[in-house]
Amino acid sequence: MAKETSSRIRNTRRRTFIKTAGTAVTLAGLAGCSSGGNGGGGGDTETSGGDGGGDGQTGTTTSPSLDGPVRVGLLTPLSGPFALTGQEVQRGVEMAREHLGGEILGQSIEVVSRDSEGSSSGALEGARSLVEQEDVDAIIGPSISSAGLAVLPYIRDQAQIPILPTQVSSVNAREGENCTDYSYFIWVSNRHTVPVGVDFIYDLQENIDRDYNPDQVHFFAPDYALGQNNLELLREEMSSRGGEVVGSTLAPIGTQDLSSYISELSNSEADVITGVLTPGMAVRLINQATDFGLPDEKIMMFNSGKPVDQITQASVGATADGWYGTYFYNPASESEINQAFMDLYPSESDLLPNASCGSGFETMRAIAQSIEQGGSTNPDDMVDQLGGLSWESIFGPAQFREGDGQIELNFVGATRQDTEFTVLEEYPDIIPENRC
């Protein structure tokens, strides 16, 4: 991914032009970006009621000093229906800054935040402000797939600085015309989660004393990009293994009373209910389905962590016992960095240390490592280091693949037993094929 010096000079001049003449760029020219497509969004979440080190690449470094503070833009939904995610990402960024001692190569870390308000237009406006007014060196976020699809073309075509989205799981944001050298994805895509989920459905037979047919599943999810893309990929994956999706149930996001949908799941011919959930819907489904006795009738196994993840657990406790999920974050990990992360997480929070918070924590650490290894905040120097960067994260060994910025992580299939996160299966080194 290394670029010629002339390219670096050209990109730096491009940024200077954007900062001084950004107001002359018409919003009409970006209108197509803000109405971006509907990919997966496996990390999109609805609100429910240090040292940067690691085993990274060794790059050719310039002088190990910087001219001024490191300015990191934070672009997340701090208000609106996805605020819980944004607030946890923000918490993780601040925890990482503390973990790093507040500085990189002797210069202070300045975090400049913009609230995307959970919308594509808000995210694009925030990104433009961070680049053209605040002159940030890199951006963490956005945290919703639709927002990512709006912002990434602007980063690719104009801003040309590193961007590390968090919960942007849309496959469309990482493939084809949206591929860019500047994007690095800490959060997994739906192409990560669906095959692992199907693996776990079959492997679960060896871990539990229940008879069920893994070749037939019924899909349940919120009815927006998150669920729609997962359903499409699940049909493909089950078909490739000789199985099938015998039914699907999509509930409007924000639905409070799920009783009619639970009845539909209960009447399905499938023994397995699978899909993907936002935290809010996960909490409601776990509580209401348990009242109906659905977990006694069906195997309840969902991707993207819910219902076994930490945010859901903080709300439902033992009610999630006996539910199953696949995830890339094992909160029971005894690694040194995960213990540091746990210690930094504020004890007064009503939540538990979680992956959304971890996404902010690890993107800041990755930015720090790219600057430390390259000795520069020049955007192309940082990109050279981020491509192929590997480090020991709270998620385990992590690596950004050079060429498309996708993350390679280990997954687990897990359940909750007496509220404890219990690993049943391990799936190492998960990364989909490069579609750039």
From TrEMBL:
Pfam families: Peripla_BP_6 (PF13458). Residues 69-408 form the Leucine-binding protein domain. Gene3D superfamilies: 3.40.50.2300. Residues 34-57 have a biased composition (Gly residues). Keywords: Signal. Residues 30-71 are annotated as: Disordered. SUPFAM superfamilies: Periplasmic binding protein-like I (SSF53822). This is ABC transporter substrate-binding protein.
